Amino acid sequence: MKKPAPSRRRFLAQSAAIASAALIPTHLRSSIAATPESANDRPGLGLVGAGRMGHNHMRFAKGMCDVVAVCDVDTNHREKAQQNLSDGKAKAYNDYRHILEMDSVDVVYIATPDHWHAKILIEAMLAGKDVYCEKPLTLTVDEGKVIRKVQKKTGRVVQVGTMQRSYLDLFVKAVAIAGEGRLGRITRATASIGGSSGSGPIPEHAVPQWLDWNQWLGPAPKSPFRWIQDPNLKDEWQIGKTNGHQQFRWWYDYSGGKMTDWGAHHVDIACWALRAAGQSDTLVSIGGEAKLPVPYKNGYPTLRDQYNTASSFSLKAMMSDGTELLITSEGRNGVLLEGTKGRIFVSRGDLTGAPVEQLKDLPLPEDAISKTYRGMPTPFNQHPNHWANFFHCTRERMEPISDVTSHLRAIDICHLANLSARFDRPIRWDAQNEQIIGDEAANALLSREYRNEFAIEM
Asked: Where does the Gfo/Idh/MocA-like oxidoreductase bacterial type C-terminal domain lie (predicted)?
């Protein structure tokens, strides 16, 4: 398929938006409403990946856009999303490239398994689309280099689905506390992200007629479909133990396990807090202990028929200024920030600690949350605000709260943590050149080979 050119409608709309924004004083831009003023302002959205995540998260965005196309390699997912999200009106495809060709698609929402993210994101930006992409953006460090380059070239707006950056009353408030110096100098941040378990051998299985397995694999290595059906599952999105669908997270060919699943959220918050406090989030080294469910040799699993991502771990990342960032499968899920003046714990359920209690007598400045949220509108909270932030930034041509650069700094720490686990040795990192120091075998896994038919179309 040929690479789509931006439509005349999109070009004129974006030119007008840029021209209008130039007439608005910078300090007033954040007061602009975060939802469209009329139906004509509603962007057309193309959903790529209509499984549980993509389908369910659209409920937060549906009121701010029109779903004009859906894509999924699973016929059941595709048909259900088409009906539920557009009353059957949206175009439905098996191949996402059709969506990139559509003039009526202004923004693309990527909710595929992780191994597809970078390719679709890069091609969507080159096709003139703004993109909301679920985390992590990458499967390897080198994919991030290409993403940064293409975004700079195209000027597209990209929001990462690390929606904790829009939890105003919890994570944003925690970062604001750190930014206001209430913790003093942060000496240690701990991201507790939980562990996982192995699966045991999963046999090969005939590919169901409703699944295009070759297209599901895409850039990943050719592999047989594996499946152990579980008749007790009541969730229609689950299909038991498999190397596809919801269980893709536990295979390094498709994801990074808990490290890039919950790590993408909590390591990001820890790094954001360090930056807000005027400290470094530049990695120097990472190492520690990790348990993997199968034996490894030279960084690769020796068994290919079962889950292989790290199941438990305690890995310490050292920043360039000496601050410690601990990534662990132990403890309560959340982020602990320990400083010279106090400590706070933040999760999706609460924000606690003496510095939080002290807010009753010494509240944060009125603009603390706004300043932490870069002065952008905050009409909602949590998931709805994250989507509203994205659409606001596509109109104003601004960098959203979960920007590419900050996300890649955090997720690269997670990728390097996984390499430390896979090789069972510490990793020393040259952040300036984005290379592992003195370890050729680990350095080789900073990138991956794509299958020829699924190479990125630049």
From this structure: 199-455
pLDDT at residue 370 in the model:
97
The span from the CA of 326 to the CA of 46, in Å, is 38
Half-sphere exposure of 157 (CA within 13 A, CB side): 21
Helices (H) and strands (E) in the chain, counts: 15, 19
Report phi then psi at 384, rounded to 5. Answer: -60, -40
Which pLDDT score, from 0 to 100, does residue 20 have?
31
pLDDT of res. 235: 75
Containing H/E element for 158? Answer: strand 158-160
Q: Which residues pair with 158 in a beta bridge?
A: 131
User: What is the value of pTM for the model shown?
Assistant: 0.91
Structure tokens at 242: 């498999």
* Cβ contacts of 147 within 8 Å, gap of 6 or more: 118, 121, 122, 137, 138, 404, 408
Whether residue 15 is predicted with pLDDT greater than 50 in this model: the reply is no
Task: Identify the residue with better confidence: 22 or 339.
Answer: 339
Q: Which position has the token pair 């990458």?
A: 138
Nearest to 220 by CA among 456, 449, 50: 449
Count of structural domains, the chain: 2
42 domain-assigned: yes
By residue range, what is the domain housing residue 94?
Answer: 8-162
Closest CA to 368 of 181, 187, 188, 185: 181
* Of the residues 162, 177, 204, the one at which a domain ends: 162
The token duo for 451 is 């299958």
At 33 the pLDDT is 34
